[in-house]
Amino acid sequence: MSTFSEYNLQPNEVLEPYYEVIPYKSCDNATLTIDDENIAKMEGGKIKGVSVGSTTLNITAKNFTKKVPINVGKQISDVDKKKVTSTRNASDICIINPISRMNIGDNHMLWAVVFSNDTNFLYDMTSQDNVVNITSNNPAVVSTQFGVLFANKVGTATITVSDVSGSKTKSFNVVVEDNSFVSTKTLNVDLTQFNLNNAGTSDTGVSNAQGFVNLFKYASENKYDHIVFPQGVYNLNGDFGTITVPSNMIIDFNNSIIQLELRKKVDITKWEHVRANNEYAFTMFSLLNTKNCIIKKGKFYGENYLDKTEHHIEHELMFDVIGSCDGSKFVNCEFSYAPGFNINLSHNVYGDTRTAFKLSNAEVGGYTDIGANDDNITTRFRCKDYISLSSLNKYKDKTLTFGLGCMQGYGGYAYVKGRFYNIYFFDENKQFISKLDKCVQFEYYQRPANSSYCKIEFYQDSLPTTADPDFGGIIHIFAVNELKGFRFENCKFEKAMSTGLCPQGGTDIIIDNCEFLNCGYYDPSSQIDWEDGGQHIHGHIVKNCLFKSTDKNKHSVINVKSRSVVLYNNVFDYCTYEQRTEVENARIFKNKIINGSTFVLDSKTDMVYAYNVHENAPTIRTIVDGMSVWQFDNFKITQGI
């Protein structure tokens, strides 16, 4: 009998056990029992974690029993720990994205880097193996696996990060809360009051769109926080323009269909496949800094549903989710038959705040702790003169969040390879205020409200030699409203022409128990496409989802450029996953990869591929500068499923 060497799962996590008995398939001929059901139990043929601890799974076929350890709340198996090595001699630990608060059911992909004084250590994180050990002192509250934190129940836990030897450690506390949004005042929608038609009547799209706007305005002004629509079919039309969705609202569409009519003002057939300046393309709904908004039980269908065709308008969006949408999510919704990208996710980057650290302003050297020049530091480069924050201060009433990175062209690390920098803030009189240590390109931080100038030093022992041709910048500082914590729960994405979901940014995005079916017929042709704006994509967690192709096309999930994307406990059914060289810190574990599904993996930094069930091992293509794909205890199917 063959199976995993052990099963590691979290409290409340559900895993399907896989095993094969030679010479016959055992799925219909085995009995599964668990010794201690207070630790884990069988539920619907699957293993469910109950509480932190260890027990044994018994797989019995005919007269043979295989005993397999089950660990709940354990980071990684002891056997696999012995496989983890690193040549890096630790001098410090840098936790890039610590988190202080989580909600029950949340995940967070922690990223930490082992610093070293070795002469061959590079701050661009593309040399040697960066291996850290991440543990929790209270896994019943917060457990961890491969750096992914699992918020299991209300309480507090201390997360400790160490290098492989354990000689260097850093810790932080996480408080887990139950912050479910609860409504207090419900509005049952009167169709007549808002001139709404829910019979799917032709040419009601514009008037319905106006009715939606009037309804949302009325509900907000009268302090309603729960809207319930009568079930039906609501037409909408892009000729109206974009509908802005309000904050602090549960919007229950009551299993209604919201379908888009073809526009009357613009002929869709004249703009098929046109990318730039497409006059047909529009956004139907906008969530712009929309907080605590729960949209539930709506079936949002693009024009291809009503028109029964396959129009392709790449930049058309059903929903555009941008900026600080804390506490907002889609629940039990469907987003299908879209001509274009369907749903976009992005941070709200204020483009006119982009301020260049110019090549002409760069010199070798560092700073003291108060931002004075220190010429004894020769392994960094700094700016010669102050950088003004005047463009960022135009928006300081909206946000004090900033990022630093190349914002010209394709972005990324075009001119500055070093990821880490220190930044020093000064007031309008150029008096020192404060310093942020070991920041990372394209991560987001808070600056002081009274800051007017800054100085920046990079951990890079050579000066950049080129800059962007437009501004002469080697790097840019910019203001941003961060999209953080947005969720999709129990949603469906079907037959969107470009993408089912198009993330162009976002931090700690959770996509849970969703179905992606036959999305992607035209470039980028994908169920999910992490690509444009990839440097702004941080910690997207995709779990318990199905990616499936049923129309003879093998549809794809594409990860071109991102940071800390996690795929776990998903099913890929005749669907490819392609990960390219601009991907950093990816984690792929406990997935079921079947029916001809293939995984192709490039990586810019170390990544994990573990505990997956697959027909074929992934193709490891380009691993930048010898980085590793850590492969642990994957189960190869020999008889099919």
Provide a quick synopsis of the model.
5% of the residues lie in helices and 46% in strands.
What does this structure look like?
5% of the residues lie in helices and 46% in strands. It is built from four helices and 63 strands. It is globular.
How is the secondary structure organized here?
Layout: E1 2-3, E2 7-9, E3 14-15, E4 19-20, E5 30-34, E6 40-43, E7 46-49, E8 53-61, E9 64-72, H1 78-81, E10 90-95, E11 101-103, E12 107-109, E13 112-116, E14 132-136, E15 142-145, E16 148-151, E17 155-163, E18 169-177, E19 186-188, H2 205-221, E20 226-228, E21 233-237, E22 243-244, E23 249-261, E24 283-288, E25 293-301, H3 303-306, E26 317-322, E27 329-331, E28 334-336, E29 342-346, E30 348-358, E31 362-364, E32 366-367, E33 373-374, E34 381-383, E35 387-388, H4 390-393, E36 401-405, E37 420-426, E38 432-440, E39 444-446, E40 453-458, E41 473-481, E42 487-489, E43 492-494, E44 499-503, E45 506-507, E46 510-512, E47 515-517, E48 526-530, E49 537-538, E50 541-543, E51 546-548, E52 555-563, E53 566-568, E54 571-573, E55 575-584, E56 587-589, E57 592-594, E58 599-603, E59 607-610, E60 613-614, E61 619-623, E62 629-632, E63 635-636
Parallel strand pairs: 2-9, 11-18, 19-20, 20-23, 21-23, 22-24, 23-25, 24-26, 25-27, 25-28, 26-29, 27-42, 28-43, 29-44, 42-46, 43-47, 44-48, 45-49, 46-50, 47-51, 48-52, 50-53, 51-54, 52-55, 53-56, 54-57, 55-58, 56-59, 57-60, 58-61, 59-62, 60-63
Antiparallel strand pairs: 1-4, 3-7, 5-8, 6-7, 8-9, 10-13, 12-16, 14-17, 15-16, 17-18, 30-41, 31-34, 32-33, 34-40, 35-40, 36-39, 36-41, 37-38, 37-40
